[in-house]
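To the wet lab folks,

You asked to see what we're planning to order before we commit. Fair enough. Below is the target structure as tokens, and below that is the sequence we designed to fit it. If anything looks off to you, flag it before the synthesis order goes out.
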């Protein structure tokens, strides 16, 4: 609620004013019932409320007076309906804006969080927060506001009863307190089910994500049933929870309706026993009958709020943990600084399960072509993530241009690094949009040059829509090699000082890969090129070879430079030297 109040700010004042005006109009229209009932029962106005109004009506006959009073009543009801419409529209707009603001804030915090933290988050956790929890949060705030409105209406109505029938009002207040105490256990259960709901919702999201990601493989192996079973298990659990919640709500409604009927009867009898004048008693009963609806709404709201607060708590916890994880200093400079060297001094990093790198000392220079190899899981990608500042070393330091840099200082170098990871990521958009991603100033000519260098110009040129060809989700309309070529072209458009390809060419044939790397080496800016690969053919293009073994660097091999041609010791890779120049 506090987040909603912060968001709404001054906008909340007119909404609250409309709520109060609505409550006031409700009270006034109900007060009009007293003279109406008086005219109906006695043929003249009697009792309290607005009975004196009849004296101002310049008509003598009863029918005329009644027509005026009913006209006033109808006008009041119409004005109140307008006010309530305005109130609801304002609240709905506030709610939509609040959802948008919360979602954007979550995504902003997500992008500002360190990679090590983001990598540990389940995708479903985030999609559930963005998709469901944010809606629940807004709905909770909305229900709270509505409840405030309902309470203000009820207070207005109760004051009226207190004014015309004090004893009845005391009985109503006592019953209200008893009812509130009785509902507490139901609210506790609703809250418990709310927590289960959050967990089960996330589990369904997770299962759906897994199903989509693995469906191709599952189809190829006739294993769809296993996926469906898993998905059904989660949806059944979620639906079961929702059905149980509905069952309890309807039980609550039935008991509420029964209690309201009994209370009404008791009030009527009590009024007769207290010998209350019929117009007053009638009006009080009408008001009490009107109060029973909002009281039930209030109870339902309390139930829904109890059930939805866990979603609110889950979203708040996620945002809090994202904020706490933020290592990047927002005030850090965004100015881009050229990179000449990147090095590590005794760098150490361990993932949660124990894998990582230890005691890594290296210095890589601009203009070098460095090959990084080693068995799977030996720490190559972890090292690259440290080198690019995605991970912060737990020991030792990363140096750029000879200076130690922390997370916040890394920002100024990011524009100068092109990192192409193992799984080349493409947006579900056109090739043009993918190439220009994050850069507004890329010309079409530059795009074609980059596509030429990455060996993609031919297939892009041949496709019907050229640069405007859509690549579909995660580039699924392209072959693996084509995806990698687009990813490399996009990286080249950044004009980087450092190009890191982490097995980013493994889907490209060896001959094309050689041509692409030769193009990178020939770039006039002479970038540092770091190639992480298992392929001997690729390693033969490098001047230095770094081999990781169980998180450590094996003795480094410096390749001999013979007449400007990079070559690799044949005994190490088992293949003959290869000329770098085309
Ligand atoms: N996010 C992570 N959480 C937990 N452990 C991780 C994570 N990333 C990597 N590891 C572990 O750290 C070790 C090194 O992983 P890394 O990805 O650096 O290996 P790699 O040399 O790049 O392997 P490959 O050649 O298969 O890409 C592995 O044991 C891996 O299981
Ligand atoms: Mg790797």
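Sequence we intend to order:
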């Amino acid at each position: 609620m506090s987040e909603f109040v912060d968001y709404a700010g001054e906008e909340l004042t007119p909404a609250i004013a409309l709520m109060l005006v609505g409550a006031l109009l409700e009270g006034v229209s109900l007060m009009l019932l007293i003279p109406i009932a008086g005219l109906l029962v006695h043929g003249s106005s009697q009792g309290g409320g607005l009975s004196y109004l009849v004296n101002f009506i310049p008509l003598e006959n009863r029918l005329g007076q009644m027509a005026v009073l009913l006209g006033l009543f109808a006008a009041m009801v119409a004005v109140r309906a307008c006010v309530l419409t305005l109130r609801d529209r304002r609240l709905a707009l506030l709610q939509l804006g609040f959802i948008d603001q919360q979602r954007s804030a979550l995504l902003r915090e997500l992008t500002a969080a360190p990679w090590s933290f983001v990598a540990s988050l389940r995708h479903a956790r985030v999609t559930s927060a963005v998709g469901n929890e944010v809606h629940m949060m807004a709905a909770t705030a909305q229900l709270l506001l509505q409840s405030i409105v309902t309470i203000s209406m009820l207070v207005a109505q109760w004051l009226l009863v207190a004014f015309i029938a004090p004893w009845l009002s005391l009985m109503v207040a006592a019953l209200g307190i008893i009812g509130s105490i009785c509902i507490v256990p139901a609210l506790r259960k609703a809250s418990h089910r709310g927590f289960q709901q959050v967990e089960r919702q996330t589990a369904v999201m997770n299962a759906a994500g897994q199903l989509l990601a693995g469906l191709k493989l599952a189809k190829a192996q006739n294993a769809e049933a296993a996926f469906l079973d898993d998905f059904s298990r989660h949806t059944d659990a979620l639906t079961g929870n929702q059905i149980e919640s509905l069952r309890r709500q309807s039980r609550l409604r039935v008991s509420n309706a029964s209690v309201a009927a009994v209370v009404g009867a008791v009030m009527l009898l009590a009024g007769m026993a207290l010998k209350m004048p019929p117009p007053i008693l009638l009006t009080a009963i009408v008001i009490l009958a009107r109060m029973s609806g909002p009281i039930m709404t209030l109870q339902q709201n309390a139930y829904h709020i109890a059930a939805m607060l866990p979603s609110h708590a889950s979203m708040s916890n996620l945002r809090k943990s994202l904020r706490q994880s933020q290592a990047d200093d927002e005030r850090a400079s965004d100015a881009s600084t050229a990179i000449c060297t990147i090095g590590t001094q005794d760098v150490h990093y361990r993932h949660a399960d124990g894998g990582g790198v230890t005691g890594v000392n290296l210095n890589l220079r601009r203009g070098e072509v460095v090959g990084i190899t080693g068995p799977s899981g030996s720490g190559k990608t972890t090292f690259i993530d440290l080198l690019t500042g995605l991970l912060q070393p737990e020991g030792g330091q990363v140096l750029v241009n000879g200076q130690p840099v922390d997370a916040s200082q890394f920002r100024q170098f990011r524009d100068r690094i092109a990192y192409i990871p193992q799984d080349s990521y493409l947006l579900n958009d056109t090739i043009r949009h993918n190439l220009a991603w994050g850069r507004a100033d890329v010309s079409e000519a530059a795009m074609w040059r980059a596509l030429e260098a990455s060996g993609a110009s031919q297939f892009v040129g041949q496709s019907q829509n050229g640069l405007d060809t859509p690549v579909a989700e995660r580039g699924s309309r392209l072959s693996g090699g084509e995806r990698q070529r687009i990813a490399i072209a996009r990286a080249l458009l950044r004009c980087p000082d450092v190009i890191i390809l982490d097995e980013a060419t493994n889907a490209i044939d060896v001959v094309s890969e050689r041509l692409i790397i030769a193009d990178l080496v020939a770039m006039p800016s002479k970038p540092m090129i770091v190639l992480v690969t298992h392929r001997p053919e690729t390693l033969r293009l490098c001047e230095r070879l770094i081999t990781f073994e169980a998180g450590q660097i094996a003795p480094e091999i410096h390749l001999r430079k013979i007449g400007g041609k990079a070559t690799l010791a044949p005994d190490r890779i088992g293949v003959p030297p290869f000329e770098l120049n085309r």
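Structural context that might help your review: The first strand starts at residue 341 and ends at 350. The first helix runs from residue 2 to 8.

Thanks,
Computational group
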